[in-house]
Amino acid sequence: ITVGESAWYICEAAREEGMQEVYHFGDKQSALNYLQAILESGMVVLFKASRGMHLEEMVEKVVTGGDDDG
Q: Is 41 helix (H, G, I), strand (E, B) or coil?
């Protein structure tokens, strides 16, 4: 899963290298909605981002089951 305009290129490169389940979202809320829909108890997710993306906010919402609007 990639998030944000600049991350689109990462997603495309992964697809070009043969990865099939690669998803891109333009914003954190869309990515959060997707993650919350697919995650099951016991799954492990690695978040990697620049500090400017503030994905720690999204991580907290994934862990607590909340949404990303504040």
A: coil
